[in-house]
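Justification of computing resources. Each target in the renewal requires a structure prediction run like the one illustrated here; the chain below, 410 residues long, is used simply to show the kind of job we budget for.
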Amino acid sequence: MPVITIVSGIFCNKEAIVAGIQKKTGYPVIDDDAIVKKAHELSGVSEKSLQRAFTSKNSLFNNFTHEKERAIAWLKLAMAQVLEKDNLIIDGAAGLLVPKSITHVLRVLLIGDVAYRVQFASKEKKIVEKEANAQIKNHDENLSAFVNTIFKSNDPWADSLYDMVVPVDKTDDAKSVSLISDYLQSDVVKPTEESKKRALDFQLSAQVEVALAKEGHAADVFSRDGHVTLTINKNVLFLSRLEEELKTIAQKVPGVKSVDTQVGKGFYQTDIYRKYNFEMPSKILLVDDEREFVQTLSERLLMREMGSLVAYDGESALNLISKDDPEVMILDLNMPGIDGIEVLRRVKKSRPEIAVIILTGHGSEKDRETCLKLGAFAYLQKPVDIDVLSDTLKKANAAIKKNSTMKTKK
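Resulting structure tokens:
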């Protein structure tokens, strides 16, 4: 029997419809949280990072870390393993990861116009109109971003993504359940040998994507009967060298018979392809009001494969930390507004896992003692030798990885 994927706009009474289909079919329901949990178990990547793949808010460090691409690779593998079984209801955006070539999957979209959704939120959820509109906007933006990541299209409601679109504002729950259940009887969505082969293709593609992600790479992967095509979507100076590296990684995946590479449309854009080096810190926040100095420092770190963002004052740094996940902070002490010591104090109170390296040209021995007592990882004086700073950053990165591994084991 087939698998059903159900994608829905928020406030479209999805819960009742999914419950009705489950009752009628007896199929178990697997939602996005279950896919995320399975991906976490496979990868060790935090559930928070995996959940972020479904949102419109990419990490500001994503260009350096490929964090979203790595998350989606693991989510695909989790989904591919789930599809080893039939007779399932996959409830959520993760269902969009399933390729259209797998024809024993019935893809359903539940959607209604905004007026209906606002009315439903008010009547069924007791949510006021303003808040309902805000939640609808946020949910739609997140779904659009997820669709754009996978299909390079911003329209999550496109008919081409689904086999059945159910307008819930014009169809009652019982009729919606009946329409979907009746469609399951169609020969079009019954499992065939061809469709099962395509499910195996999906699993192999996901395994290759994960293998690439483990080595810090991100590329689009297509598989057909063991023959794999890798598409490079960002410009790179030494294309042939990258192609050989990607091929070498992919060829080691069991089941891969051959590997070809090609460049995609994104290859001709200005973005530069960067391999993520797991041994180097790539989520560094530089906080210093000396703009020329900190911009030059950022460029010099990038030459050493270390990605960084820049904040020119303490308040901006604290705002960024509240929205993103830097792992290391290089912090000046003397800045207008909130000074470095106060920034350090607040960071260590709210985000103690961030390694803070003080880099100052005006600090005293007393400042040094205060910073180390507050939890600074290191205290350095300007001007600093770039090799000394690089070595300190590597040590901070190693300490972060060690702490993360210990927490995972617990």
